[in-house]
Amino acid sequence: MRTFKNLGMFYLFLIFSMVGCMAGFQTQSMPRNVTTATSGVIFSLSTPKDAYTSKDTIPLELSIQNGKFNLLVPVVNIAAPSVFAQLSVTDSDGNVVDPKRSIIAPSSEEIFMEKDGKSVQCIQGLELKAATTQVVPLEDLQKYYQLEKGSYTLTLTIELPVYRDFLKKRQPEVIELEEEIKRIQKVADAHVSAAGKRSAVNDLQQQIEFLEKKHKDIYLPVKSLLGKAMLTSNNIIITIE
User: Fold this and answer.
1) Looking at the predicted structure, is the pLDDT value of residue 2 above 70?
2) Are residues 49 and 89 in the same domain?
3) Could you tell me the pTM of the whole model?
4) Which of 36, 206, 233, 241 is the most buried (most CB within 10 A)?
């Protein structure tokens, strides 16, 4: 009996130790502020060639390499072409080249969603997963800039809002399936076995999971804004021949 008690105490100690380690890990992985959360984000601007003619299409590509934190950001801030709204183009003398056509950064469209019986003001968002890279293309720089012969330096600066929470819009199909699960669970019929009910519920839950994976749109509560970070890309130089 004494051995059993000692063994039980050992397992309890082991469990508490593991829980303590896990809790410590979770605390360390949470960003304390926007600066910390975005410190590992790298913006990399690139183009396939160094030299073009004035009649060529000049594609640009922005790679957003995220650090160790998941970031909740508005879709419009990292979508093409609006992400390039603050692109800076300067000539070899350091003069800023004005665009012939501005890249418009639209404001986030606000919608209202229900949470805990309350209406919450939200904008459409996107979760930048930790340690992943998001690529945003601009089809043709010359659609917005008239570039004559010479060398140009391109730099991109982005003001990136970061949010704390997100909500998902519940799909009508999911709501119907959830109601069906409740109905099955309440059925008291001698002809329906417990195993049959579990099987039916599992099938419906799999359908719900499929639908939730299919509908990935998330919405950021406006009041959950943590702050904004200014992020600047590398410089690239292109030549118009």
Assistant:
1) no
2) yes
3) 0.70
4) 233
Alpha-carbon gap, residue 68 to 66, rounded angstroms: 7
The pLDDT value recorded for residue 28 is 30
Q: Nearest CA to 161 among 117, 125, 187?
A: 125
- Banded model confidence at residue 32, pLDDT cuts 50, 70, 90: low
53 and 158 in one domain? yes
Residues in contact with 120: Cβ distance below 8 Å, sequence separation at least 6, in sequence order: 112, 113, 114, 167, 221, 223
The 3-state secondary structure of 148-191, one letter per residue: CCEEEEEEEEEEEEEECCCECCCCHHHHHHHHHHHHHHHCCCCC
Overall domain count for the chain: 2
Cβ-defined contacts of 129-133 (< 8 Å, 24+):
129/66, 129/70, 130/66, 130/67, 130/68, 130/69, 130/70, 131/66, 131/67, 131/68, 132/65, 132/66, 133/63, 133/64, 133/65, 133/66
The residues near 158 (Cβ < 8 Å, ≥ 6 apart) are: 43, 77, 78, 83, 86, 230, 231, 232, 233
CA distance 96 to 164: 37
For residues 157 and 230, the answer to whether their CB atoms sit within 8 Å is yes
Domain range enclosing 186? 170-215
pLDDT higher than threshold 80 for residue 235: yes
38 and 137 belong to one structural domain: yes
Q: Does 169 or 198 have the greater pLDDT score?
A: 198
